[in-house]
Amino acid sequence: MSAENNAFDNQPKQDGDVAEDELAKKIVTYYGYFGEHSLKRIAKTCAKLIISEHCRELCFDDFEFPSHGEIKSWVLEEMKQNFEEKVMPIIEQTYPRLSEAELDEEISRLEKKYEKEHKEQLESTTRAAIKELQIRVRGLQKEFKELKRKYTI
Q1: How far is it, in rounded angstroms, from Cα 128 to Cα 134?
Q2: Please, is 51 exposed, middle or buried when counting C-beta atoms within 10 Å of its C-beta (0-12, 13-18, 19+)?
Q3: For 39-42, which contacts have Cβ atoms below 8 Å and span 24 or more sequence positions?
Q4: DSSP-H helix ranges across the chain
Q5: Whole-angstrom Cα distance, residue 51 to residue 116?
Q6: How far out from the chain centre does Cα 127 lie?
Q7: Residue 129 burial (CB < 10 Å; 0-12/13-18/19+)?
Q8: Which of 1, 64, 86, 122 sits a CA distance of 20 to 30 A from 103?
Q9: How does pLDDT run across 57-97, given as a tens digit for each residue?
Q10: Contact call for residues 55 and 86 (beta carbons, < 8 A)
Q11: Is the dihedral of CA 18, 21, 25, 27 positive or negative?
């Protein structure tokens, strides 16, 4: 059986296999960069987006922190957007003959694949977003209290 496997492994790769391997290497390289540089920015962006959406509640001191799952969905959406921005050009270079619909399909397939493989990044970024949100909300609440003291009787 091992001779069969070796014979199979030694067969020349088809163009699709080479393109897939090339694409995988580029995405792994991107994710190495992504992990180092973009996750903190995504956490901050998510915290800002949540604050923007709940600004009124913050002003009236009615703000309730979103659940872990809600913050995770914000982070996942932001990660997908960043993934698409960075990976779309890689896919277009690797598969220059794909139509727009095929490119979108390929992006969706890859998002699902790398989402599963990068759950740790998602969790760590979600934790960072929660921490960032807590810091920003505390700061805003403190500033609002000071403003209320200063401008009210």
Answers
A1: 10
A2: middle
A3: 39/121, 39/124, 39/125, 39/128, 40/128, 42/75, 42/78, 42/79, 42/82, 42/125, 42/129
A4: 2-9, 15-37, 39-53, 55-59, 68-94, 100-117, 119-151
A5: 28
A6: 13
A7: buried
A8: 122
A9: 998 889 999 999 999 999 989 988 887 787 778 878 888 88
A10: no
A11: positive
